[in-house]
Amino acid sequence: MTVVGAAVPSIALARVPDGAPRPEDFVLVDLPREEVADGQVRVRVLTLSLDPYQRSTLGGRHLGDAPVGPGGLVPGRAVGEVVESRSPEVAVGSTVLAETGWRAEAVVPATAVVPVVVPPGVPLSAALGALGMPGLTAYAAHERHLRPQAGATVVVGAGTGGVGAVAGQLARLAGARAVAVVGSEEKAAIATDRLGYDEAVLRGPGLDGALAEACPDGIDGYLHLGDQATLDVVMERLAVGARVSLCGLMDQYNGAAPTRLRAGAVMAARAEVHGMVVHDHHDLALDHATRVAALLASGELVTVEDRCTGLADAPAAFARLMSGTNVGKVLVDL
Predict the structure, then answer these.
(1) Section 232-245 average pLDDT
(2) Is 54 part of any domain?
(3) Residues 180, 158: Cα–Cα separation, whole Å
(4) What is the pLDDT of residue 62?
């Protein structure tokens, strides 16, 4: 690596989090500014995406990613502007999606950046949410795992998050009855008033009774993005022939005991249970982008974002995300 000019503000791991991450688990550092070699581009980060998978990477538990130890750059993807290019394929001024890590700029291979294209009136940040990895995750779970029919009841854990918000709207657009599991009254209002869920129920001690009222005929489809307690309650209320997509294991990301699945409930419901790894579904990327872009452009699908400004605020925003106190897709504007 050749170093040129000023340093680059970056967020490194100060220590591996013990349980849910806290802001003090991270440190703001200056990393050397790299020279752009042939076939590379320099990307100035505009908006950084914070996602739950980053927590499992920090703990060395994410599929396909090397663990990050103390002093290591926190991984992450961003929408950015190409400010320097030594590739004929990528022009300066292009807006791209890139794996930059948590830093103000990054030098990456030109072959590793993806042009950002969003419909008129849709923010560029949608490339990190509904049109990005969270949206593809929701789309794949909807199309391949849940496959809801008109009149079915679909329950979505973390129903206002980056993945859940898209999944719930897709279920509703398919004619299903969509029920969000959320962590606060504020999120419940967002779920029904902005995202169009038919009902929203609060996770916690009263969840079983709330689901009994919201889903009197049982649950036909469940996208799991929540905690062990929520999974246990939902599994006991599955309808016969239900489909379950295990998509996010928030407890496990934060170092809790491995998530358990109630085998008896699966048997009683004759349920299909699928594990969701978005990398298995990249063949759906074009279909996802085309359909969701059209839904965003028409206003049939909306986004909810939890944004903050400044790289130094990323650790606190990430802590909110992993504690479930965020509202919407978590983004950091630089």
Answers:
(1) 98
(2) yes
(3) 7
(4) 55
Q: Which two tokens stand for residue 79?
A: 């929408």
Please check whether residues 143 and 272 belong to one and the same domain.
yes
Q: Are residues 269 and 319 in the same domain?
A: no
Residue 262 has pLDDT above 70, yes or no: yes
Is there a domain that residue 206 lies in? Answer: yes
Which of 125, 74, 52, 60 minimizes the C-alpha distance to 312? 74
Name the token pair of 270.
């004759």
d(C-alpha 189, C-alpha 204), whole Å: 17
Integer Cα distance of 38 and 86 in angstroms: 5
Count of domains for the chain: 2
Q: Which helix (H) or strand (E) holds 222?
A: strand 219-224
User: What's the confidence (pLDDT) of residue 1?
Assistant: 36
Same domain, 152 and 252: yes
What's the pLDDT at 2?
Answer: 37
Q: Are residues 193 and 122 in the same domain?
A: no
**Same domain membership, residue 139 and residue 271:** yes
Exposed, middle or buried: residue 283 (CB in 10 Å: 0-12, 13-18, 19+)?
exposed
**Number of neighbours of residue 97 by Cβ within 10 angstroms:** 23
Q: Which domain holds residue 159?
A: 133-280
40 with 79, same domain: the answer is yes
What is the per-residue pLDDT across 133-161, written as a single tens digit (0 to 9) for each? 999 999 999 999 999 999 999 999 999 99
The proportion of the chain whose per-residue pLDDT surpasses 70, expressed as a percent, equals 96
The answer to whether residue 288 is domain-embedded is: no
Under 8 Å between Cβ of 285 and 314:
no
**Do 233 and 211 contact (CB within 8 A), yes or no?**
yes
CA dist 69 → 104, 255, 320 (Å): 20, 16, 21
Q: Is the pLDDT of residue 250 over 90?
A: no
